[in-house]
Amino acid sequence: MQIPVAIVCAVCEYESWFLASMDKIAGKYDIPPGVSFPGNPEEKCGAKEWLSNQMKGDNIYRATFHQAKMTHHLDIDHLAKNVRSFQRLIHAVEELLTAIDNSEVFVTPAPI
Questions:
Q1: By the 8 A CB rule, do 6 and 37 touch?
Q2: What is the CA radius of gyration of the chain?
Q3: Distances (CA, A) of 32 to 2, 15, 23, 58, 77
């Protein structure tokens, strides 16, 4: 059985999408209310460290603890309008659904 496949990655790291959603995450997980990320989150490599630096006291960002919880607070509408790698994810899912509906084999990006 052949199935369509898409590979999409956040620029730098998955946590970059959290930086773009700080208005929904700030005030939770030991990050003070009002914290926002200045600039383009896709240009910030080291998002995990940035998140740790925003946390109160000696708390640090731990992917195994925080990632799933913070994902719940992603601002999907904001990401879809403003974050190119997330836009690519949406497009890839649309391509996969179309391929499935049409019983097509589809791979993106195309193999070299």
A1: no
A2: 17
A3: 48, 18, 11, 14, 23
Tell which residue, 54, 7, 88, has the closest CA to residue 18. Answer: 54
Predicted TM-score (pTM) of the model is 0.86
Any idea where the domains of the chain sit in the sequence? 5-108
Q: How far is CA 29 from CA 22, 25, 57, 101, in A?
A: 11, 8, 12, 41
- The tens place of each residue's pLDDT in the chain, 112 residues long, gives 678 888 898 888 999 999 999 999 999 999 999 999 998 999 989 999 999 999 999 999 999 999 999 999 999 999 999 999 999 999 999 999 999 999 888 787 877 7
